[in-house]
Automatic annotation (TrEMBL), chain A:
Name this protein carries in UniProt: Biotin-dependent carboxyltransferase
SMART domains the record matches: AHS2
Carboxyltransferase domain residues: 26-287
Source organism, top-level taxon: Bacteria
GO MF entries: ATP binding; hydrolase activity; transferase activity
Length: 288, 213
């Protein structure tokens, strides 16, 4: 374990993320973790790390690091220019950083969030077994700040991996998310259920790791009474009083009091991590 | 009569979770206790709320197995769960909250009577949620039902002791909130480095004690 990287510029929001801290929701502790789980696990596989080793989730690029020792890194997720000492380096491949070299990550050209893994994984103080940062509740490490030094651990599972098949859905203009109706689809009109399956919404700027806010046709309820708060999960499509849906992300609250019309299937739930404001979103209802 | 869980009370949440709507708090408590004592294989999270339990699973197959098991449970034949046998913990409250007078007016009593009712009864943490360490406490005597604020505050300080509906709760950290604040406490509600991390975990019994204003 050693200090291997110095943060020269943290960018807009760079968070340490692993696969989160599931299993504590009954205490009000949400799972958090990388939003684009496929991107983080791919970066780790490229480096021979354990799949859930902690790396960096970099929103909108702008990150600059200096290697304090020779180290291997891999960049996945959003497409963004990667420079090592000013020279372009490959994304989706192991990249060697010589001691004293500087890594610069530019603004993504497709998608929003890059994942930078380091061989051995990041190390630090675990909270409920996880290094993940939840900026909403303050659990886990704070967002990266200039001058911070990152500690690298020994979360290695094997040799460096081959270049892997990269997920092809980052930063699409239109996303189709498969959903299963429920748990509270019976709170909505038949027209709202039809709309959910056919209409298009747009991702709003006011979206974050708590949830992606959407704008589009209004989903109308048949019941106007208050729903007592109940458990929420990542991917739940909640419809607040204004009828505009919100899809919960990794830092969702563990309970909520607006009806959830449908939930995005697990393999589709992470695609919103790369959806820039204005991205069109459709839902495809999976019939039982 | 056996009242098994109907398909209508076991509601899908995506492909890895189900929400079980028990209809009453007592039935929810009974099933929560039974599932904690004997968790289904592959259960990741069991999240109690007022009348529901959310169960999330590691895989879709685990969920299918658990749903089959849930359908065979006679909830009304489950033992009624005894309250936590442990001693109640005392939480000292300074009853100086900005909504104390409004709460008293809403209930048609004087502020001192709000304090008396809050301190005189035994509270139990019914479930947690909203933020790490926030417990929803129900009292054994009642008499403090008030609606939420029409417009939530953008920031409620940590340690605020508040009322909403039939519940009382304490804000573990600063956050927006719509509960009516009747006082403050210096108690540390949540500390991830402490065992247990949450002072008010489900089942815990609490007495509020009046401290200096």
């Amino acid at each position: 374990m050693s200090r291997a990287l110095r943060v020269d510029r943290p960018g807009v929001l760079t968070l340490i993320q692993d696969l989160g801290r599931p299993g504590h929701a009954r205490l009000g502790v949400t799972a958090s973790g990388a939003w684009d789980r496929a991107a983080l696990t791919l970066a780790n596989r490229l480096l021979g790390n354990a799949e859930g080793a902690a790396g960096l989730e970099v929103l909108l690029g702008g990150l600059s690091l200096t290697a304090l020792q020779p180290i291997m890194v891999a960049l996945t997720g959003a497409e963004a220019p990667l420079l090592v000492d000013g020279r372009p380096a490959a994304q989706y491949a192991p990249v060697a950083l010589p001691q004293g070299s500087r890594l610069d990550l530019g603004t993504p050209t497709r998608g929003l969030r890059c994942y930078l893994a380091v061989r051995g994984g990041l190390d630090g103080r675990r909270v409920f077994g996880s290094l993940s940062s939840d900026p909403t509740t303050g659990l886990g490490p704070a967002p990266l700040a200039s001058g911070a030094e990152l500690v690298v651990g020994s979360d290695v599972a094997g040799p460096l991996g081959d270049t892997d098949l990269a997920s092809g859905r980052r930063g699409l203009d239109e996303l189709v998310l498969r959903v299963a109706l429920g748990p509270r689809d019976d709170w909505f009109t038949p027209e709202a259920i039809d709309l959910l399956d056919t209409a298009t919404w747009e991702v709003l700027q006011a979206s974050d790791r708590v949830g992606t806010r959407l704008s589009g046709p209004t989903l109308t309820r048949v019941r106007q009474d208050e729903l007592p708060s109940e458990g929420l999960m990542r991917g739940a499509v909640q419809v607040p009083a204004d009828g505009q849906p919100l899809v919960f992300g990794p830092d969702h609250p563990t309970t909520g009091g607006y009806p959830v019309i449908a939930c995005v299937l697990r393999n589709d739930a992470d695609a919103l991590s790369q959806a820039v404001p204005g991205t069109r979103v459709r839902f495809a209802v999976r019939r039982p | 009569m056996n009242v098994l869980l109907t398909p209508d009370s076991i509601r899908p949440c995506g492909d890895h979770a189900v929400l079980v709507d028990l209809g009453t708090q007592d039935r929810r408590r009974a099933l929560d206790a039974a599932l904690q004592a004997s968790p289904p294989t592959g259960l990741v999270d069991l999240v109690p709320a007022l009348q529901t339990l959310l169960l999330t699973f590691a895989t879709e197959a685990h969920r299918a197995d658990a749903v089959a098991r849930l359908r065979s449970i006679d909830v009304d034949a489950l033992p009624v769960t005894a309250p936590d046998a442990g001693q109640p913990i005392d939480i000292t409250v300074h009853y100086n909250g900005p909504d104390l007078a409004d709460v008293a007016a809403h209930l048609g009593i004087v502020p001192a009577e709000v304090v008396r009712r809050h301190t005189a009864q035994l509270w139990t943490v019914d479930f947690a949620g909203f933020m790490p360490g926030f417990g929803y406490l129900t009292g054994d005597a009642g008499g403090l039902d008030v609606p939420r604020l029409a417009t939530p505050r953008t920031r409620v300080p940590a340690g605020s002791v508040a009322l909403a509906g039939s519940f009382t709760g304490v804000y573990p950290s600063p956050s927006p909130g719509g509960w009516r604040i009747i006082g403050t406490t210096d108690a540390v509600l949540f500390d991830a480095d402490r065992t247990p991390p949450a002072l008010l975990s489900p089942g815990r019994r609490v007495r509020f004690v009046e401290g200096p204003r």
